[in-house]
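re the bet — no i am not wrong, look at it urself. input seq straight from the record:
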Amino acid sequence: MPRLLPSLLLLAALCGGFGWWMTAPQPLPPEATAGLSGDAVKGEAVFWAAGCASCHMAPEASGAAQRVLSGGQRFTTAFGTFIAPNISPDPQQGIGGWSLAQFANAVQRGISPEGDHLYPAFPYAAYAKMAMQDLADLKAFMDTLPPDPTPSMAHEVGFPFNIRRALGGWKLLFLTEGWGVTGDLTAQEERGRYLAEALAHCGECHTPRNALGGLQTTRWLAGAPNPSGKGTIPNLTPAKLDWSEADIAAYLTTGFTPEFDSVGGHMAHVVENFARLPESEAQAVAAYLKKVNPSE
């Protein structure tokens, strides 16, 4: 055994080094954002479709205060409690000093400007499908929002989930640019897919997850337990959601079901966001939902 010890130590060192290399952050290539300039007017639509204010405004903010992205909302999960950071244009406490490349790496790759992995409570797995021009437009609009000096609070995450390097392994398993719905789609259905799967990141809440927190893509939008442990998030596939396309579009923009129940919980923010967009966007999502594979 003493003779084997040096070999075992060398093997352990090699395995550790390989694991460290494999879990390193993988930023976008520099050319991904080279030469891009954003349009703030177009970026506002991206902002509401992506639901940025829904998570990053202060708790209970309303009206104009929803545009102040000071953070502070708490999101409880089985892995810990994640607290939305300040993403206002404040140069010290927010993201006002970020370049477009740094912004793109955070949004699409889950990498901070310091080179650390970000937790996937920030839905970069969905935003990875965003068009780069939309991302540039989004940043241009966010740069026009009010800066706020509120410091971001640390997430309340215990061992082993506080080891951020391990998120590199999570990304290897679950960070993909593949679509949940594939096959032949009309232009309207493709637009709906882009809105639902990339910008509005519907799958992040409505698709069940495995023990590691990865989406069970074979049960796309089939509903899931609420991460807070209270109740469930509904099934949006045709196996359960039998509303007409007109009913779905109306719900997304008014918050009323065909039975005249009203929207509640975090979904109320989604309705507020879609109400700010052209009606054709909600209609596109409704058309897309009819193409989702039925799943009980």
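see?? Residues 5-22 form the longest helix (18 residues). told u. also The longest strand covers residues 74-77. so pay up
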